[in-house]
Amino acid sequence: MTKSERLLALLTLLRTKRYAVTAVQLAEALEVSERTIYRDIQALMHIGVPIEGEAGVGYLLGTASHLPPLMFTDQELVALELGMRMVRAWSDDELAIAAQSASNKLVSVLPDKLKQQVERFSYLVPNTSKPSPAANTRKILRHAIDRCLKVEVGYCDVNKQLTLRCLQPLGQILWGHMSGESIWTLVAWCELREAYRHFRIDRILQITVLDETFELTDNKSLEDYIHQQKSHI
To answer: How far is residue 124's CA from residue 86's CA, in Å, rounded to a whole number?
Structure first.
């Protein structure tokens, strides 16, 4: 990695952090020495990058900073295009439209060589999904999750039993495809069971977003749910 590549990588890493990050953490992430990080921080500050902090405490980009757009490698651009094709194929209609718009913007600025590579893409992402109640339910849940709003759902379980649940939706997980439909699971805090529960979204027969918010905590979040699942493996 050249110095310019390392400086760009360091800047990109700082951009991803909301809190101060130490030189030790930066050095580990970039696989360089702490001394190199100190020199690189000074080099970035010398050219006007607004970095706050100091050695031994940590570094953070200034809140009022205005930096030039990110630069991507060829492989990163191809990965972004692949990701947007997956979004168009497997998400809801709103995100599919947004992904297509983003893809158009990305391709419009690619050099001819990369445009040809995208046109001859070696990854096929079949879009066999059709408009369905499950896709609309995923969109409703996505908005509820973003706003931390409770939902009331009518759920048909594996035994064909219908139950009414009040849920605090935390996240949605894609497991695969079946008969042309994406199979998603909702992870939620179930107020009936007072515990985490997961629900096949295609088995949610009705959904109502309630005008009642909930709070995420260290013991009630998608991250905590995933951590608990990993601990059982």
So the answer is: 10
